[in-house]
Write a structure and sequence with these properties.
2 helices
Length: 75
């Protein structure tokens, strides 16, 4: 009786992960030489779209209060 033995048909080589690249190098790889027509710019942070009734901290505090009240009822 013959044994089932796995045979590797194609050689498998692990690729080493490439180090991260910067914006200029990524641009060069994607579009070729850097042009004077295109310049990366930093945009200011987005403004809030609307005012919220509560802050994130207030919302978290109220949620913790509700959780604590639920735990008191369960006991």
């Amino acid at each position: 009786m013959s044994e089932n033995v796995g045979v590797r048909l194609l050689p498998f080589r692990r690729k080493r992960p490439e180090p991260p690249i910067g914006e200029a190098e990524a641009y060069a790889r994607s579009y070729g030489e850097k042009s004077a027509d295109v310049k990366p710019v930093k945009l200011p942070p987005r403004r809030k779209r609307f005012e919220l009734a509560v802050s994130g901290e207030e919302l978290r505090r109220r949620f913790e209060e509700r959780l604590a009240a639920r735990e008191d009822v369960e006991e």
